[in-house]
Design brief:
alpha/beta, single chain, 9 strands, six-stranded mixed β-sheet, three-stranded parallel β-sheet
């Protein structure tokens, strides 16, 4: 059995590759658990400043959940299906969304179902021109279960999301860009260089400030504006006693590049 997720760390960037190309990188339970385990490990590795998620092979980022495995859980009843499938998938996407380091999805092919939900949860996403997205769960007689009914409307708006969720029709990367599901669409050969370049643009800055921005946005987006502003204030307050804020201010005044700890 090959590893369901591969990890490569170079120049401060960890690339996690969904590694079931013969199954179009379908997300089985082992893969979902491996993604979370890698994220747990990488979060405490000071040498890693950003994470890229992509798929093995030329055809798929991920075609979604492993339906054969999920079907067995459904046959065992509600409690098993919810515990093994829904909670596991939601925990995976929630971990990605709330991660303290930037997570970039590099969508190299099909991103159906759970693959699309990973894209929705990632902080930033770049799609190859060969990418294709879909919310096909309705074809199975069910709603999305890894967060797709909640994140897609927040990204694309209620009516556009419902059209995709209720039709199950695939949509091209350009439409994903227009809806805010991805940040860029690039030629296929440029996908990983573009993802790494985006990560490097972020890595120029204070790791603490990057984490603070991620926390403020991820937690604040679902709060009323007053509570979101309080969250923003809290994140700033955490930066006040740090070297990074003092160094950033001094570098600005002295017209030089800041030297952040660990960067």
């Amino acid at each position: 059995m090959s590893n369901p997720v591969l990890c490569d760390i170079r120049e401060g960037i960890a690339t996690l590759t969904l590694n079931r190309p013969e199954k179009l990188n379908a997300i089985d339970y082992a893969m979902a658990d491996a993604i979370v385990a890698f994220l747990d490990t990488l979060e405490t590795d000071p040498s890693v400043k950003a994470v890229i998620l992509t798929g093995a092979g030329e055809r798929a980022f991920s075609a979604g959940a492993d339906i054969a495995q999920f079907r067995k859980s459904v046959r065992l009843g509600v409690q098993t299906a919810v515990r093994d499938f829904v909670r596991r998938g939601q925990a995976m996407t929630a971990r990605i969304e709330a991660y303290s380091k930037p997570v970039i999805a590099a969508v190299n092919g099909l991103a159906f179902g759970g693959g699309c939900e990973i894209t929705e949860a990632a902080h930033l996403s770049i799609a190859s021109e060969k990418a294709l997205f879909a919310k096909p769960e309705i074809n199975l007689g069910m709603p999305p279960t890894f967060g797709g009914t909640q994140r897609l409307p927040r990204l694309a708006g209620r009516k556009r999301a419902l059209e995709l969720l209720l039709s199950g029709d695939p949509f091209p990367p350009q439409r994903a860009l227009e809806m805010g599901l991805v940040n860029q669409v690039v030629p296929h050969a440029d996908l990983m260089p573009a993802a790494r370049a985006l990560a490097q643009r972020i890595m120029r800055h204070s790791p603490l400030a990057v984490s603070s921005v991620l926390a403020a946005v991820t937690r604040g987006i679902n709060l009323p504006i007053a509570e979101g502003l309080h969250m923003e204030s809290e994140q700033f307050a955490r930066m006040v006693p740090t070297h990074d804020l003092r160094e950033g201010l001094e570098a600005w005044v002295e017209k030089r590049r800041p030297r952040y700890a660990g960067s």
